[in-house]
Design a protein that fits this description.
Blueprint: E1 9-10, E2 25-31, E3 53-55, E4 58-60, E5 63-66, E6 71-73, H1 74-78, E7 84-88, E8 91-93, E9 97-105, E10 108-112, E11 115-119, E12 137-143, E13 146-148, E14 150-154, H2 159-165, E15 174-179, E16 195-200, E17 203-209, E18 216-222, E19 229-232, E20 234-235, E21 239-240, E22 246-251, E23 259-268, E24 287-290, E25 294-297, E26 305-310, H3 324-335, H4 338-342, E27 345-348, H5 359-365, E28 379-382, H6 397-401, E29 410-414, E30 417-421, H7 442-457, H8 460-463, E31 467-471, H9 484-490, H10 492-496, E32 506-509, E33 516-518, E34 524-527, E35 543-545, E36 559-565, E37 569-576, E38 581-588, E39 593-598, E40 603-606
Parallel strand pairs: 1-7, 16-28, 26-27, 27-28, 30-31, 31-32, 32-35
Antiparallel strand pairs: 2-5, 2-7, 3-4, 6-15, 8-13, 9-12, 9-15, 10-11, 10-14, 16-17, 17-22, 18-19, 18-23, 20-21, 23-24, 23-25, 26-36, 29-30, 33-34, 33-35, 34-40, 36-37, 37-38, 38-39
């Protein structure tokens, strides 16, 4: 037999099912491939006859060998007496059945009852992973009732393997075998509905989670056109990402203001090839599975639109919002508000929950899935809050809500309005604190952000914007603390610019769990519950913060902001948990505030330097 094509044969015996508890004792034959005579076929199989393998005038007899936890060290067991081997036995089954077999080996093929069911010897290289595991190759076998002969063919190395890796490289000769009765081939399925995040003029990010790690992409087209464009989730614009369940794909170069159709494209791998360890050059023909067609409108130059804002949806902070079911009830009422229904996009202003140990479970399964839409998904702007750094899963937040390499602070435009999304959260106020996500320091974050803000302020998009709106978890005025003080320093230049080309018209926030509003230049705070302390006696910018659950269970548990953008003004309307309006005002392009409505129980508190 040709040395390149010789295979090792392994036949199992003495067990009713092939499993992790494979027989401890084996009958093994070891010999050199070149000793096989008259066997020149590429797919030649050497099987023992009457307990003997006859090779070039000599008979190879079996010897008893053992494995360690299902792994055969054939280098050690052969005692360097050859690069090929045969292990023989029968495998018994109480009934006819199908099962999955997991095998690890550099070069091998498998026969069951004389029929070849798996072969990676065709390139002479096979699986180049070292050490091997029983999950490297997974394939289905069919057992008959009674005795079954399982044949594995392999050998230690090949001239091609020596060429690729070099003869001086130590290539181990191991074989791992295990039944995997619970194995289920990967299916092209979504674990949660996709979300559309970080919309901008001409772009949007589609983020979704598959049940198992599989390659995925997106087809998209202008509504009414026939040709689909496709974009994959890739590494380096070349390699399909199949080691992750989290897929984040940016669709850019969209035509502003156009209605787009899209569908997720999931690639279902062949059964047994859904892992990450596989033979080099193995052929994997994926099945394309298309998710339902949905649509979205790309951000454009429209002068009039609206958005809806809320945040701080932590649980267990009030008597009325302690459980996921409680919060869902609040969110259901919120989603029935007309301003919510008409919004072009949503802003979650931070602190979606109190901590994050499992982002997928806590934010998707218990939160975002509720807002899924069948035909036209919500476009989300997520702002990181102080609680987004709290919990063992804090770092995972970035895997779902932004592209790899993107910052947690960014800017986007829609219809001549620039939105500046800041990252101003810090939960621990400390360094190297592992209990809340292991923060290094907020100084690094704020320093990078401050430099970015200065560059942004010089851009034509910033200078020519009709309005400039800051979206940030905390506000810049009320509290003097380790959270708020560095934010004021970071945004000092941004807020001190009152010119037409640099003015910030509006700052929308959460964090304090109170509805508070202050107009630029005013020393009055508009509120239902007064502030106990403040850092500045005069507001540097017109800002609003929303209500959220409070420890004292005071009403309301939540309030929400509906924001309408017109060509000459931005109107902000505050709604309580019942969808009733309690405050409304607008800001014009010059930054002047116009009061429209204020409920009678709302008050005005004078802010002075005296505390």
């Amino acid at each position: 037999m040709n040395t390149k094509n010789f295979l090792l044969t392994l036949v199992l015996s003495g067990c009713s099912v092939l499993s992790a508890q494979i027989p401890g004792k084996w009958q093994a034959y070891f010999f050199e491939a070149h000793e096989v005579k008259g066997k020149r076929s590429k797919h030649a199989t050497i099987l023992p006859e009457k307990g003997v393998i006859s090779l070039k005038g000599k008979n190879i007899r079996p010897e008893t060998v053992s494995h360690v936890n299902g792994l055969f060290d054939l280098d050690k067991l052969s005692r360097k007496r050859g690069g090929a081997a045969v292990l023989t036995a029968d495998m018994k089954s109480e009934k006819a059945r199908k099962t999955w077999l997991g095998v690890g080996g550099l070069i091998f093929s498998c026969r069951v009852n004389g029929k070849k069911v798996y072969d990676i010897t065709w390139k002479g290289l096979g699986n180049d992973y070292d050490p091997v595991t029983a999950k490297d190759h997974i394939f289905e076998i069919e057992l008959e009732k009674g005795s079954n002969k399982i044949v594995f063919e392999t050998r230690r190395t090949s001239s091609l393997m020596d060429y690729v890796y070099g003869k001086d490289r130590k290539i181990t000769w191991h074989l791992a075998v295990q039944e995997l009765p619970d194995y289920k081939p990967a299916k092209a399925e979504l674990a949660h509905p996709e979300i559309l995040v970080r919309p901008d003029t001409g772009s949007v990010i589609v983020s979704f989670i598959t049940v198992k790690p599989i390659p995925a992409g997106i087809d998209y087209r202008v509504k009414g056109s026939r040709k689909w464009l496709r974009k994959w989730n890739t590494a380096g614009d070349l390699i399909l990402r199949e080691k992750t369940r989290n897929h984040t794909i940016r669709l850019d170069e969209l035509e502003p203001g156009k209605e787009y159709e899209y569908r997720l494209v999931l690639l279902e791998p062949p059964a047994g090839l859904d892992g990450f360890r596989r033979p080099l050059w193995s052929k994997r023909v994926y099945k394309e599975v298309f998710m339902p067609v949905k649509s979205f409108k790309a951000f454009g130059n429209e002068q009039e639109y609206s958005f809806f804002l809320w945040g701080d949806t932590q649980l267990s902070l009030s008597e009325k919002c302690k459980t996921v079911a409680d919060r869902k009830a609040f969110m259901k009422k919120m989603s029935d508000i007309p301003a919510f229904k008409k919004a072009d996009f949503m802003v979650q202003i931070g602190d979606m929950d109190s901590y994050y140990h499992d982002v997928e479970k806590d934010l998707f399964g218990k939160y975002l899935d509720f807002f899924a839409r069948e035909k036209s998904p919500v476009q989300w702007v997520y702002v990181r809050g102080n609680h987004e750094v709290n919990g063992t899963g804090a770092e995972d937040w970035y895997n779902y809500f932004q592209m790899p390499g993107d910052k947690s602070f960014y800017a986007f435009t829609k219809g001549g309005v620039m939105f500046i999304v800041l990252d101003c959260g810090d939960f621990t106020h400390g360094r190297n604190t592992a209990g809340s996500g292991c923060l290094i320091s907020t100084e690094t974050l704020y320093a990078a952000q401050e430099k970015w803000i200065e560059k942004l302020r010089k851009t034509p998009e910033f200078r020519k914007a009709r309005f400039r709106v800051v979206l940030a978890h905390p506000e810049p005025q009320i509290e003097s603390s380790q959270v708020a003080d560095p934010i004021r320093k970071m945004t000092e230049k941004l807020l001190s610019d009152t010119s037409k080309e640099g003015m910030i018209h509006l700052w929308l926030a959460g964090h304090v769990h109170r509805y508070w509003r202050a107009n630029r230049g005013s020393n009055e705070l508009i509120h239902l519950y007064p502030a106990r302390k403040w850092a500045l006696s005069k507001a540097p910018v017109t800002w609003v913060s929303t209500d959220a659950p409070k420890g004292n269970s005071a009403w309301p548990d939540f309030s929400y902001l509906g924001v309408d953008v017109k060509k000459d003004r931005i109107t902000v309307t505050a709604y309580d948990v019942d969808g009733k309006k309690f405050d409304s005002f607008s800001v014009d392009t010059a930054g002047k505030v116009h009061e429209h409505f204020l409920r009678k129980d709302m008050k005005r508190q004078k802010l002075t330097d005296k505390k």
